[in-house]
Structure formats: C-alpha cells, structure tokens
Design a protein that fits this description.
With about 290 residues, the protein is an alpha+beta fold. It is about 15% helix and about 20% strand. It contains six helices and twelve strands. The strands form two sheets. Strands 1, 2, 3, 4, 6, 9, 11 and 12 form an eight-stranded antiparallel β-sheet that branches. Strands 5-10-7-8 form a four-stranded antiparallel β-sheet. Bound molecules: 2-oxoglutaric acid (AKG). The site of 2-oxoglutaric acid has 10 residues, from strand 4, strand 10 and strand 11.
C-alpha cells in the first residue's frame, strides 16, 4: 500500500476502513442490479454513462451519474457522519455536498481518466473543495487506482484546453512528470480525500478485477461557483442551500487570492470521458476505443 498522504502537504489523505463491509456489500449489490438494468439502454442517459461497445448481451457501464439521486444507500453514504467528520477536519464545519459519480473500471475494458485538476471544471471563490473516493473494490495499480502528483494542489491550475481553445478536461501530457505520480491504493471500504486542485488521473484496468470507485464532491459552504459545467448539479442559490449536509448555508462568499481559469465550454459534455476523448493528446491508451 502507498503511504496515507498528508492533506496539507500532499493534497490527499486516506482513512482506512471508513465504510463497514456490510454497507459496501449492499452498495455493490445495488450497483450490480443497476448495471443489469442498463442492458436495455443506449446513448445518452440520466444515470448511465456507457463504454464504447455497450450492448444488451454485454452491458458496459463506465459511470453511474449521481447515484445518490437514484438510490437511498448512496444518498445516505453522502451524508455519513464519519465521512463528514473527516471532511470537516479539512475544509471546516459548513459543508455542501455537490454531487456523486461512481466510476467503474471493468476488467479488460475500464476507461482511463487523463491527468486533470477538478478545479478546472468548476472554479470557485476559494479552493476548499475536495473529492471523497469510496472504494467498493480493492483499488490497486493493476486495476487502475487513482494516481496523484503530491503537492500539485499548491501549484497553478493548469490549462485544460486543446490548441483550438476547446475545454477538453485534461492537461497536456507533456506538463505531467509521471515519475512524480504516486498511486492511492485502497482496500474496499477505505476512503481517500483529494484536494480540488490536485493533479490526478487513472490508467486503464488491465487486470481481471473490477475497480468501482465512488467519488463524492464536497465544498465549504462559503465557496461559490465562478463558473460550472452546463448541467452542473448546484446551479441555483436554492440548490446550494438544499445541498448543505453539515452546518449552515451562507450568502457570503469567501474569496481567496487564486487564479481560477474559466472553462471554455458551452454545452453539457455528457461526462469527463467524452470531453477527454475529444483531446488531441493522451497519456494513456484507451483499451475500449
Ligand atoms: O475514476 C477515476 O479513476 C478518476 C475519476 C476522476 O478523477 C473524475 O471523474 O474526475
């Protein structure tokens, strides 16, 4: 296992065994049921992001979008007290839940995720935002665990646009020193917490084991969006208020000194995969393409 990371220094940390095995088992059963129901689905869908090659007799789902809106278990998980305690220790008492996504890397064809910083997708007035990664399976280098560049959250927000000015949700691979990357290996039930400006990615799944990682995004209540992807979950003040999961809402934005590039994107992209597939350069081979 890689080291646990120090959030302030490295931009990530890990809490081992945060989610009990019975909860993980129930979530996995829910995911299996949902994937089974994807057999009848094709194209754009509110819940399913499908891998290329998805078919009724070979369902290939790469992401469940906002599973908390479709299942009570995921809804409760986003509000779980010990997870919120870990978040509070890093970004303060007043916490908004932004949205969740369950990224599934299936054996043999799980899509990679190119190097990026989440802040490039949704810049805010301050950077007290983080993603909690909840491992539903053991996540290792072989099945495509998260890779991070420790300390990169203290550097600039890099350009996530292609040469033609389109936001592609990925940085130029030449800007990433792969030798500095470290894996965040998790056992099922462990969680990772990574800073919104941390440079991260994940390789394709070359193993015979699935890697299902739920990523729940949270923000300090006084971090207000400067721009958001079209179709983002929290796009009105009422939606921001309604998404408080600990503490209280506020109408006072805390503005810290930072450079926050505004993504040049005008239409809902579907997902990070669709955006990144449109980039001219890639760090990882996409085994599914
Ligand atoms: O699923 C992964 O490995 C990383 C996903 C990610 O970084 C994202 O969806 O923003």
């Amino acid at each position: 296992m890689a080291d646990e990371g120090d959030y302030g220094r490295d931009g990530y940390t890990v809490v081992r065994g945060a989610i009990p095995p019975d909860v993980v088992a129930r979530l996995r059963a829910t995911v299996d049921r949902l994937v089974e129901s994807s057999r009848t689905v094709s194209g754009d869908h509110a819940l399913f992001d499908l891998e290329p090659g998805h078919a009724a007799d070979d369902p290939r789902v790469r992401r469940l979008k906002q599973p908390e809106l479709h299942d009570e278990g995921f809804f409760e998980l986003a509000r779980r007290a010990n997870v919120l305690d870990a978040i509070e220790a890093l970004i303060g008492h007043d916490i908004r839940f932004q949205s969740g996504k369950l990224n599934m890397k299936s054996p043999r064809f799980g899509s990679p995720v190119e190097w990026h910083q989440d802040f490039a997708f949704y810049p805010h007035t301050n950077d007290d935002l983080l993603a909690v990664g909840i491992a539903l399976d053991d996540a290792t280098v072989e099945n495509g665990c998260l890779l991070v560049v420790p300390g990169s959250h203290r550097g600039p927000v890099l350009d996530h646009h292609d040469d033609d000015g389109r936001f592609v949700g990925a940085v130029d691979p030449a800007l990433v020193d792969g030798a500095q990357a470290v894996p965040i290996e998790l056992a099922a039930g462990d969680i990772s917490l990574h800073h919104v400006r941390l440079l991260h990615a994940s390789a394709p799944n070359h193993s015979g084991r699935p890697r299902r990682l739920l990523l729940n995004m949270y923000a300090a209540a006084d971090a207000f969006p400067l721009a958001a992807l079209p179709g983002a979950a929290c796009d009105t003040l009422a939606a921001l208020d309604a998404s408080i999961v600990r503490g209280r809402s506020t109408r006072t934005a805390r503005c810290t000194e930072l450079l926050a590039p505004i993504p040049n994107i005008t239409a809902a992209p579907g997902s990070i995969y669709a955006l990144q597939e449109s980039a001219a350069r890639a760090s990882f081979d996409d085994v599914a393409r």
